[in-house]
Design brief:
Length: 78
Amino acid sequence: MPHIIVKLWPGRSEEDKKALSEKMVEAMKETMSIEDKSISIAFEEVPKENWTEEVYKPDILAKENLLYKKPGYKPANT
């Protein structure tokens, strides 16, 4: 615990994903006193044309009460 899933559009480099993972791990360790061995991170690439149905509606709109940072956009087809 915890397992973090980052959903994003395709196109980020493996180096960028690794760098972000390292920063997220450090933030979790520092902020929540969690051991490195307890943290896992995955990246799920979702094509732009599928974002609204696969991410925005189920993970953002349907779980708005769980968000600590809300997006500053709304897809046109919501």
